[in-house]
Write a structure and sequence with these properties.
The complex is a heterotrimer of chains A (about 190), B (about 350) and C (about 300).
Chain A lengths: L7 H15 L5 E2 L7 H9 L5 E5 L3 H12 L2 E2 L7 E4 L24 E5 L2 E3 L4 E6 L7 E6 L3 H10 L8 E5 L4 E5 L4 E7 L5
Helix pairs in contact in A: 1-2
Chain B lengths: L8 H12 L10 H7 L1 H11 L4 H10 L4 H12 L17 E6 L48 H7 L29 H9 L3 H12 L8 E15 L6 E16 L6 E2 L5 E2 L1 E8 L3 H19 L11 H7 L2 H9 L6 H22 L1
Antiparallel strand pairs in B: 1-2, 2-3, 3-6, 4-5
Helix pairs in contact in B: 2-4, 3-4, 3-5, 4-5, 7-9, 8-9
Chain C lengths: L2 H8 L16 H16 L5 E2 L13 H10 L5 E6 L6 H14 L2 E2 L8 E5 L12 E5 L13 H9 L4 H14 L10 E3 L3 E3 L18 E6 L4 E5 L5 E3 L28 E5 L6 E5 L2 H11 L1
Helix pairs in contact in C: 2-3
The chains are: A alpha/beta (about 190), B alpha+beta (about 350), C alpha/beta (about 300).
Chain lengths: ~190, ~350, ~300
C-alpha cells in the first residue's frame, strides 16, 4: 500500500475532510495509505503548533507515536486542540474537551473517533440537520457509544461553542460532524463486541 | 492598453515587466555593492521583513531598484516559504558586542558614552565631489565593547524605574508569524509587531505622541547598537552553541511625567519603561518603537482611554505594518469596475428618487 | 527580470537556484490554513483568525484567496481565476500563472471544468456544482467595518450577535436617501446566525450564495481571517419589510454587445467614437461560450 506522504497524502486527506465537513454525515472514502485511517487524519492535521490527547486501548503508545511523527504536544483532554478516541472504551471524551469562547469559538477542540463501520444505518443511528445538509440526513455508526454521541450533542448546545468531530471507520470511510450540525440520536442498541 | 482586455492580459503583463526593466543586466549596483555600501537600506529591509539575511536583503534592494517597501515585501514573501528549522535560545541583549552606546539620562554614565560610527553630530552637506560608488559602513569593522552596565539597572536599584515585567504565562512568547495578532495583545506580541513595523509610519506616530497627541516624551536611558549572539541548543549536549550574530539596535526609554508610571521595588511610584529592539541600525525606528511601547501602555492605563492615536493599541499595531499598508493602498490600482457599477446603480437610484420628490 | 524568469528559477528541477515547496507554502503553513479552514466551515460565517503568510503578491491583492487555493490544490485539480468576472484581468492572470507553476495544476477558463474557482468581486454566471469550491479574495472581511472600524469591538458584537449598529446604518441610509445605498459588499446573515461580508461582489451575486450546492471559502490575507459558507446553507441579505434587498438593475433593453445576453451582470462601457453607452457581460468566459453557442 502507498506510504503516507506528508505533502501529497496530507493534501488528499485534507480535501476529503473538507468535503466531509461541508457535507456533514455524508460518508467519504479516505485515500488508502499504509497507516490506519484515523491516524492519516491525525497526521494530516497535527504539527508542533497544536496539542493532542489520545484515549482508548493503547492510547499511550499511539499518543507517543503521533507526537513524535507530528511534533504535536501531548496534553490532558481539557487542554487538547485535537483528541483521538481509539475505541468505544473511552466514552464521555467529548464532554471533557475545549469548546472555545464566544469571541473565539474556533478554539473548541476537534475529536477524531475511530469507529467500526459507517453506513446509512447502524446500531447507532443519527439524524442530522443544519448547514451542508439539505433537509436531513441519516448516518449509521457501529462502534460509537450512545453516551459519546450524546456527549457530543451536548457539547454544542451552546453553539457556536462546541466540539467538532470526525468519524473514521475501519474501511477508511470518514464522516464529519461539525458543531453546526444538529444531532438527533434516533435509534440505538448495545454495540456488538 | 486596457488592463482587462478580454484577450491579451498575459501579454500585457509581460510587456509591462519588460518596460520596467529598461536595461536588463544593466549598470546598476551589484548585490555585493549594495550589501556593503547601502547598509542602512539593507538593515531597513531586514527589519521590516523580519528576516535577518543581509545578502538576501541586498538582493531584494537590487531587484526592487531601491524601492525599500517593495524590497521588504520581497524578502518577507520569501521568508514565508521557509520551513521553521528550530528555535534559538532566548537572546540576552546584555551580551551584545556594542559598537554604539549612548545614554541621555546623565552627563556621565558607568561604562561611558560610546558614540561609535555615526553622522549624528556632523553637518549634513551633500557631497558633490565624492566617488560615486557607495562606501562600506564602519559598523562592520568595529570590534565593539563587551558588557557595559545598564543605566536602567542602576535606576531600578535606586527605585526610580519599575521592576521588570513578570514572564508571560504559557509555553513561550506569542508568535506573530504563526498567529493573527488580536488586541489587547500580549507584550511579546506587541513588541514583535512593532519590531517589524514600517519606520516611517512608526516615526510619524511616535512624533505625534511627542507633540502632545498623547503624553509620552521619554528620556533614553539606553540606546545601544551592536552584534547580538544567537545560540541554539546542541541536540545532544543540551548546551547553547553560538551560530551567529545579528546586528541590532536596542532602546530603553524611561519617563513618568507623561501620566503613566509603574511601581518600584518598594511599591513606590517609579518611572515606567518603553522598549525597542530592531534588526540592524534602524535607529529612529528603535526609538519610535520604545515610545510606542510606552504610549500603548499609557493608553491602556488611562481611565478615559487613549489620549491620541499613538496610545491606541489597535490603531498603532494594525497600521504600522508597511507590507500590509502599501499593499492595500496600491491595490486601488486594480480594476474595480464591478463594485463601481454597483455604486453607480445605487447613486442613480438615489438621484431618481430625489428627482421624483423635487418634481 | 520577468516573473516568468523568477518562477523558472524557483520551481524545483528547473532552475539552479533554491527551489520552493510544492504549492509555494511550506507544509506547516498549509496545515495551519487547513485546520482553520475546517473550523471556518464548522462555524459558518464566523471569521477565524489565521497566521497569514506573506505571498509573492502584495497584501490587498488577493493573498487570502491565494493562500486558501494553495492549501487546497493538489495534482488532479483544475484551477480557474477571475477578477471582476474576467479571466484575462491582470490580477487573475497573475494568480493563474503562480498557482499553475507552483502547484503544477491544470488551469481552465471554463467554470464547468474547474475544481477550484478563485475569484475577486464576482461569482461566475454558470451555476457551480457540489464538487466545486469557490474561493473568494476578501479585502475587508468585517461586515461591521462600516459602523465599527475597531476590530476588538466588532468581535465582541459578533460574540453577542449584536448587529443593531448595522441595522441602524441601513435605516439611516433609507431615511436620508430613500433607499439602502450599499452597493457591493452587501451584508448578509449566514445560517441565521453570523453577519458576514460576502466580499465586494455586486448585489447581483448575493442570491447565488443562498443554499448554493458548492462550498464557498473566503480568505482575507491582510486582515488575516478565513470564513466559509458550506453548501446548502442559508445566506440572507439584510433588508427591511418595506425596503427589500434588490440586485442592480440595468437600463431597459440593456444587453451584452457581444453575445446578446440580457440576464447576466453587465459592464457599462462607452463607445470611444460614437460616445454611446453599451454593455458587455462581466463574466467573459460565460460570454464567450454563449457567443459560441449562438453561432
Amino acid at each position: 500500500m502507498k506510504t503516507f506522504d506528508p505533502v501529497f497524502g496530507s493534501q488528499r486527506v485534507f480535501r476529503c475532510l473538507l468535503e466531509a465537513t461541508a457535507s456533514p454525515g455524508k460518508v467519504f472514502a479516505l485515500p488508502p495509505f499504509d497507516v490506519a485511517a484515523p491516524e492519516t487524519v491525525a497526521r494530516t492535521l497535527l504539527d508542533p503548533e497544536v496539542t493532542l490527547c489520545v484515549a482508548g486501548t493503547g492510547a499511550r503508545e499511539t499518543e507517543d507515536r503521533l507526537s513524535r511523527l507530528t511534533g504535536a504536544r501531548a496534553v490532558p483532554p481539557p487542554e487538547a486542540d485535537f483528541a483521538l478516541m481509539l475505541d468505544a472504551e473511552a466514552g464521555g471524551l467529548a464532554s471533557e474537551l475545549k469548546r472555545g469562547s464566544l469571541e473565539y469559538p474556533e478554539r473548541g477542540a476537534t475529536v477524531i473517533y475511530a469507529v467500526v463501520r459507517l453506513a446509512e444505518t447502524g446500531s447507532l443511528a443519527l439524524r442530522l440537520g443544519g448547514p451542508g445538509v439539505p433537509e436531513s440526513r441519516n448516518l449509521g455508526v457501529e462502534g460509537l457509544p450512545v453516551s459519546e454521541a450524546e456527549a457530543l450533542r451536548e457539547s454544542r448546545a451552546g453553539y457556536p461553542l462546541g466540539v467538532d468531530a470526525y468519524l473514521v471507520d475501519e474501511a477508511g470511510m470518514v464522516a464529519g460532524l461539525p458543531r453546526s450540525t444538529r444531532l438527533e440520536v434516533i435509534s440505538s442498541w448495545p454495540t456488538r463486541r | 492598453m486596457a488592463y482587462t482586455a478580454v484577450k491579451g492580459g498575459e501579454e500585457a503583463i509581460k510587456a509591462a515587466e519588460m518596460l520596467e526593466d529598461a536595461a536588463p543586466g544593466g549598470s546598476g549596483p551589484s548585490v555585493e555593492e549594495v550589501e556593503g555600501g547601502l547598509r542602512y537600506a539593507v538593515d531597513s529591509v531586514m527589519s521590516e521583513a523580519g528576516l535577518y539575511a543581509p545578502r538576501l536583503a541586498a538582493r531584494a534592494v537590487v531587484q526592487a531598484q531601491g524601492d525599500l517597501a517593495e524590497a521588504a515585501f520581497l524578502l518577507r514573501a520569501y521568508r514565508s516559504t521557509l520551513p521553521r528549522a528550530g528555535y534559538t535560545q532566548t537572546a540576552d541583549p546584555q551580551e551584545m558586542r556594542l559598537i554604539r552606546r549612548i545614554s541621555s539620562t546623565f552627563k556621565d554614565v558607568p561604562g561611558g558614552q560610546l558614540l561609535g560610527p555615526t553622522r549624528d553630530y556632523s553637518q549634513r552637506l551633500l557631497g558633490l565631489q565624492r566617488a560615486e560608488k557607495p562606501q562600506p559602513n564602519g559598523a562592520g569593522t568595529t570590534d565593539g565593547e563587551g558588557r557595559l552596565p545598564r543605566v536602567t539597572d542602576l535606576l531600578r536599584e535606586a527605585g526610580m524605574v519599575e521592576g521588570p515585567e513578570p514572564r508571560e504565562p504559557g509555553a513561550g512568547p506569542f508568535d506573530l508569524t504563526r498567529e493573527a495578532l488580536a488586541v489587547p495583545a500580549s507584550r511579546s506580541g506587541r513588541l514583535q509587531s512593532l519590531s517589524r513595523g514600517e519606520a516611517g509610519a512608526m516615526t510619524a506616530l511616535a512624533y505625534s505622541s511627542l507633540r502632545g497627541y498623547g503624553a509620552v516624551h521619554p528620556t533614553l536611558a539606553e540606546f545601544r547598537t551592536g552584534y547580538l549572539p544567537v545560540r541554539v541548543e546542541h541536540p545532544h549536549l543540551g548546551e547553547g552553541v553560538e551560530v551567529g550574530e545579528v546586528l541590532c539596535t536596542e532602546v530603553e526609554a524611561v519617563g513618568r511625567e507623561m501620566g503613566y508610571g509603574g511601581e518600584g521595588e518598594a511599591d513606590e511610584p517609579a518611572m515606567s519603561l518603553g522598549y525597542g529592539l530592531v534588526f540592524g541600525r534602524c535607529e529612529r525606528k528603535a526609538i519610535s518603537m520604545a515610545i510606542l511601547d510606552a504610549a500603548i501602555r499609557a493608553g491602556a492605563e488611562r481611565e478615559q482611554g487613549p489620549a491620541g492615536p499613538a496610545e491606541d493599541e489597535e490603531f498603532v499595531l494594525y497600521h504600522a505594518d508597511g507590507i500590509e499598508a502599501t499593499g492595500f493602498v496600491e491595490h486601488l490600482k486594480l480594476p474595480h469596475y464591478v463594485t463601481f457599477q454597483s455604486s453607480l446603480d445605487r447613486l442613480r437610484e438615489v438621484q431618481r428618487k430625489a428627482a421624483q420628490v423635487d418634481g | 527580470m520577468t516573473v516568468d524568469e523568477l518562477l523558472r528559477d524557483a520551481v524545483p528541477g528547473l532552475g539552479n537556484g533554491p527551489g520552493y515547496n510544492y504549492a509555494f507554502l511550506d507544509e506547516l503553513s498549509k496545515r495551519e490554513l487547513r485546520r482553520k479552514t475546517l473550523k471556518a466551515v464548522s462555524i459558518p460565517g464566523h471569521q477565524v483568525p489565521f497566521g497569514s503568510r506573506e505571498m509573492p503578491l502584495a497584501r490587498g491583492w488577493g493573498t487570502g484567496g491565494l493562500q486558501l487555493s494553495l492549501s487546497l490544490v493538489g495534482p488532479g485539480d483544475t484551477y480557474k481565476a477571475i477578477d471582476q468576472g474576467a479571466d484575462a484581468s491582470v490580477n487573475a492572470v497573475n494568480m493563474r500563472s503562480l498557482v499553475s507553476r507552483m502547484a503544477e495544476v491544470e488551469t481552465t477558463l471554463d467554470a464547468r471544468d474547474a475544481t477550484i474557482v478563485q475569484t475577486r468581486h464576482r461569482i461566475p454566471e454558470e451555476p457551480l456544482r457540489g464538487d466545486q469550491i469557490l474561493v473568494f479574495q476578501v479585502p475587508i472581511p468585517e461586515p461591521l467595518e462600516r459602523v465599527e472600524p475597531r476590530i476588538s469591538r466588532a468581535r465582541r458584537m459578533h460574540a453577542e450577535r449584536d448587529y443593531s449598529k448595522m441595522w441602524l446604518f441601513l435605516y439611516e441610509s433609507v431615511a436620508k436617501h430613500g433607499e439602502v445605498t450599499v452597493g457591493a459588499r452587501y451584508p448578509v446573515v449566514v445560517n441565521g446566525s453570523y453577519l458576514m461580508d460576502p466580499s465586494p461582489i455586486p448585489r447581483w451575486d448575493v442570491p447565488k450564495l443562498h443554499h448554493a450546492p458548492n462550498l464557498a471559502l473566503f480568505g482575507a490575507g491582510r486582515e488575516k481571517r478565513i470564513y466559509a459558507v458550506p453548501p446548502h446553507t442559508s445566506v440572507e441579505p439584510l433588508e427591511f419589510e418595506d425596503y427589500r434587498f434588490r440586485v442592480e438593475s440595468f437600463p431597459r433593453g440593456a444587453h451584452c454587445r457581444r453575445c446578446g445576453s440580457d440576464d447576466t451582470f453587465l459592464d457599462e462601457l462607452t463607445d470611444e467614437r460614437s460616445g454611446e453607452t453599451y454593455f458587455t457581460c462581466s463574466d467573459t468566459s460565460f460570454c464567450d461560450r454563449r457567443l459560441e453557442e449562438r453561432r
